[in-house]
Amino acid sequence: MNLVALLQVAMALAVSVGHPRESSVSFDVEAVSPSFMDSLFGELVASEQTMAHKQQLLRKGEVREMSTEGLGLDQSGQLLEQTQYGAFDVTLNSLERSHEAYMKYRLKLNLPSDDETSDLSSTRNLFGGIVTFAAFPHFDCFDPKHYDNDIDIAILGAPFDTGTSYRPGARMGPEALRSGARRLGHGRTPVRGRRGSKLSLVDPYNTTSHGLSIVDCGDVPMTPFDNRIALNQLYRGERAIGKHPAKNSAPRVLTLGGDHTITLMAIKAAYDHFGPLAVLHFDSHIDTWDPKVLGGGISSYEGLNHGTFLHYAAEQGFLAKGHCSHVGLRAPYISRGDPQHDKDCGFHAITATDIDEFGREGIVQRLRDLVGDRPVYISVDIDVLDPSTAPGTGTMEIGGWTTRELIGVLEGLEGINLVGGDVVEVSPPYDTNSEITSLAGTGVIDLLLGLMVVNLTD
Ligand SMILES: *[C@@H]1O[C@H](CO)[C@@H](O)[C@H](O)[C@H]1NC(C)=O
Ligand SMILES: [Mn+2]
Description:
8 strands, binds 2-acetamido-2-deoxy-beta-D-glucopyranose, binds manganese (II) ion, eight-stranded parallel beta sheet, alpha/beta, 15 helices, 458 residues
């Protein structure tokens, strides 16, 4: 738009503002006492029309004047104390009364006593303080001294990214996912879960309402210098959580990655308690790559990485073969044998474009049929989302789902026997300043948590 056009628009606006619609009430402005807002902000907020409107509402009793209770006025509106503006001994009308009361109130600062701390100890701080996921309680879950403490659902960080083939950074994932969860914790939302579903009624963050013990166990220390040690540390951490008493067979763990390699240890630990798992693997990549194809080279140790871990999970017998599925696939294969090898590992495949062909409900039905009532593990690689909704990840692929599509499919899985889950590959160094990728990851954890609470309280 050039300057002349801009001026024309500005003038048109000025004209329209200058001629407001005719008010239907005739009204004498002088007769209305200004409220305290009018006095403070004057012409900024008050106009002939707003004053008339307000007066009408007052007359009809649809709004009330500000209460004068506790503001140093007696019933008749007499100010009881001397103000810095002098003593008021006239009886004020109601609007003046609110105004004067407000002005007087503004002059007062009532601090609590110097030893009072109740507002410091019980207040949620959205942008400060020690951050646990959605402010869930924390204790050292790995210390045998605490093995008696109940854990029904554990949140566990796996800060590890030395199994990644492309861009690293996912070791910072857990703290970013927790940061994204600072605003969670206030119960139900208008959109979590389908209308009338149990998921839409539960409040995962109100432990009084569901009676489950949900704990943020913090992060497992994972060494960045030797993947074998790091992954074993994670396995032992997940296993330690499994030693705590749970109301329903065993604690269920939601793991915050970390690159996708960490899922192998989470699945292994879940397998210890629940047996072969129907794995729903939301990812743009297959991650069942044969180690000979991806990474296996000079040392066999290279063969275990974020693109091969599902090959190992299948080989180790952790998977309920034929009951697992990829969801959202679209990344290029590496070798011609990949599709066959993927099938051999026991996976079905739902591609990113299948949502256009079968719709959300078509995909939901297929997944539900596939897992039945088997123990299910849901692993969500955030790169299943389109780079426009999740740019902060290691290996982006175009043409993915939106967060709403992913949420819609996950909600459709309400009622499945979800025994474990994770969100991986959130790489904060590649995220935007507004942290959209970690927020998407947090939203997925929020849903998995909801699915678990529904499942455990059925
Ligand atoms: C939590 O749940 C309890 C029991 O259902 C209820 O009384 C309480 O109001 C809830 N608290 C919040 C903050 O929603
Ligand atoms: Mn992956």
